[in-house]
Design brief:
The chain is 19% helix and 41% strand. It is of the alpha+beta class.
């Protein structure tokens, strides 16, 4: 599903733009020069929450629509508010490769039964698809991990229609590892050394008598 975001050609300095609750942005790709634009901060936050970096976003600039992916988001280090956004132009008729985040669902039976601890080995996988078929995320059901021998591999992930894997299908996504018992650290006791030393001295004295 393609989302739409209103945009305008950029006018004014970045600080003046941000003061109006707008975000400086740029779009580029497919051999075209970068074009500077501004977008509404509120609208962008809504679109980014739904689209992430894998769902196509159509920039509506006047009467023109430009299909893009959100490519990079710079944020203010103190507030976390988006301060600049890069959009990458995509060809809706050509497959592209992107990393897609994994969304873990359910509860691992082996962990619930106290056999061990869940380990999430991968948090994203690379896929290939037409821009319109790119999913926001991929679901991984970890309830199938019933024993310490069970593993979920990339090939076990259910893919939407029109999506293919780029990541090695044999890579492990998640598993449950047994608990590791913590060894008690030896406590240094100077009195014990003194007692041992004294005992040795008494033994020597007794032997010399």
């Amino acid at each position: 599903m393609t989302m739409t975001l209103q945009a305008q050609k950029r006018e004014g300095t970045p600080s003046a733009i941000r003061a109006q609750e707008l975000v400086p942005a740029v779009y580029y790709g497919t051999g075209k020069d970068a074009v500077s634009i501004t977008i509404s901060l509120k609208e962008f936050n809504h679109v980014f929450k739904e689209a992430g970096e894998t769902t196509t976003v159509a920039l509506q600039i006047g009467g023109e629509k430009i299909n893009t992916l959100i490519h990079d988001v710079q944020r203010d280090p103190l507030t976390g508010i988006a301060s600049h956004v890069d959009f990458l132009i995509v060809d809706m008729n050509k497959e592209i490769e992107v990393p897609v985040p994994l969304e873990f669902t359910g509860t691992a039976e082996a962990e619930k039964n106290g056999l061990g601890t869940l380990v999430k080995v991968l948090h994203e996988v690379h896929i290939k698809a037409l821009p319109a078929h790119l999913p926001h995320s991929l679901s991984v059901d970890i309830s199938t991990l019933a024993t310490l021998e069970d593993q979920i591999h990339v090939k076990d992930i259910v893919l939407p229609t029109g999506v293919s894997l780029v990541t090695d299908p044999e890579e492990v996504v998640a598993l449950v590892t047994p608990f590791v018992e913590e060894k008690e650290e030896a406590v240094f006791d100077p009195n014990a050394i003194e007692v041992e030393k004294k005992g040795k001295e008494e033994s020597v004295e007794a032997a010399s008598e």
